[in-house]
Amino acid sequence: MLRVLALASVVLLGIAPEASQAISIYTGWERHALVGSDIRLSCSFFSWRFVSDDVSFSWSYRPDGSRESISIAHYAGGEPYTDNKGPFKDRVEFVGNPKNRDGSILLKNLDLSDNGTFTCDAKNPPDIVGRPSSVRLLVFEQLPIQAGVITGAIIGVVLGLLVLIVVIYYLMRFLVARRVFSLSVSKHGKKKKEGSQQRQLWTPPPLTCYPLP
Amino acid sequence: MLILIALSVLHIAAIILLLVATIDNAWWVTETVRTDIWARWVFMDNKWNYTDLPDISSYPQDYLQAVQATSVLACIFSIIGLFVFIAQLFTLPKGNRFTISGVFQILACLFIMIAASIYTDRFHLDEAEGNYGHSYILAWIAFGLTFISSIVYFVLRKK
Asked: Residues with Cβ < 8 Å from A199, sequence gap 6 or more?
């Protein structure tokens, strides 16, 4: 049985890489940023092969409302190349670590005209078949409040305080009871005598019915 | 026994009013629009359409979310208060007051008052037509009921 399994796994491992030798590229889906800020767009890939020396990353930008894209950053042969003529001239920097499968770029000093789609294409020869992945950048003058953040925050804080108060209350009761218990154990003999004497002198209070005011 | 039933009915009525005020989208109504703290119903083409609340300056998002949060919290506190009241019925020693249930009800009262007050002060200030809808009115009635309920809990002693 084991031999059959071993044989099957070896056969599968032999066949599978041929079929799934596609590189998978991952970027974010959507990024929000404020005017004037910097943003790091991340791009990483998964490949069945080790990272080769010819690994390459290619970033292109398509403005909102346009159908053409322009290349803004490229990494190949161990050297990064960034935009020196286009819309991101001197504003884009390659900050990824290609040996670590990271091809991220840093966009500086964003403007409202930078709204658009950024596409990352990574190649890890001989693993070159893959779908480029896109991340959408939205630049705001003022970050809008996301739906429900304040609501959730208020509800969470109040309920959290409630739980905290209840926990602290029961903790205090528990600690006080334990302290009283440890004290009474140490003075057990003395207290017991006094207690029995006390019980004879103490009468229970009369039971009365308290009417509603 | 009768007092017990009356108290429970009062508390449950307050909970129902709070839930309707929070969930139903009718804090402000006009001929064709019913709007509120979660979404807006607009009467178009002979049927009611469910739309989002407008994102304009006369609809401050942060205050809207504060109204949402405080009205939901009022419902939560009132419902927890009901369970605490039932628990205290069995565990409270004789002669003691239902303080904790009273505390929960007064908190619910406080929160729904905050919700309705923020709504009154910040929304629909300059609108020509329209009036407050049933959810808004029920919110204030629930404020009254929870207040009375909490006072009774603070004063009543267990027999």
From this structure: none
Rg of chain A in Å (alpha carbons): 35
- CB proximity B72 to A under 8 Å: yes
**Residues written for chain B:** 159
Say whether A213 and B65 touch across the interface (CB within 8 A).
no
DSSP A110-148: --GGG-EEEEEEEEBTTB--B--EEEEEEEESSPPPPTT
A31 vs A41: CA distance, rounded Å? 8
- Residues in chain B with CB shorter than 8 Å from the CB of A213 are 155
What is the C-alpha separation between B93 and B91, in angstroms, rounded? 6
Amino acid at B38: W
For A:58-87, CB contacts with B below 8 A are none
This complex has an ipTM of: 0.80
What's the predicted TM-score (pTM) here?
0.60
- Span A11-37, average pLDDT: 75
Give A211→chain B minimum CA distance, Å.
8
> In degrees rounded to 5, what are phi and psi of residue B152?
-60, -40
